[in-house]
Design a protein that fits this description.
Layout: E1 2-12, E2 25-35, H1 42-56, H2 61-75, E3 79-87
Antiparallel strand pairs: 1-2, 2-3
C-alpha cells in the first residue's frame, strides 16, 4: 500500500542563516510512504511532520529529514519505504 502527502505547506524556523533563525518561513513537504499490513493514518503522519518541524527549529534540511523519517518509522513499524522532500521556496 502507498499513501502520499503532497504540497503540505506551513511555516517553521529552519536554516542556518541568521535571518532564518529569527522568523518562520514557508516550507513545503512532499511525502510518499509504502507499507505492508496495518493502516498508516496520513493525518497522524501530517501532524508528526508539522509538530517536529515547528518544535525542533532545525538548522539543516538534512537533519529535519533524518529525524522526521525516524519518528514516522518509530510510530509505524510496518513502513517499508519513505520518500520525503522539504522545500523552502521563498529562500532564493
Amino acid at each position: 500500500m502507498t499513501i502520499k502527502i503532497r504540497e503540505l505547506a506551513f511555516e517553521a524556523i529552519i536554516g542556518i542563516l541568521d535571518f532564518e533563525r529569527v522568523a518562520p518561513q514557508r516550507v513545503i513537504v512532499e511525502c510518499q510512504i509504502d507499507y505492508d499490513g496495518e493502516f498508516v493514518d496520513y493525518a497522524v503522519v501530517r501532524e508528526l511532520i508539522i509538530h517536529l518541524m515547528q518544535q525542533k527549529c532545525f538548522g539543516l534540511i538534512e537533519e529535519a529529514l533524518s529525524e522526521i523519517i525516524a519518528a514516522i518509522k518509530a510510530h509505524y513499524p510496518q513502513i517499508t519505504r519513505i520518500t520525503l522532500e522539504i522545500a523552502k521556496p521563498d529562500i532564493l
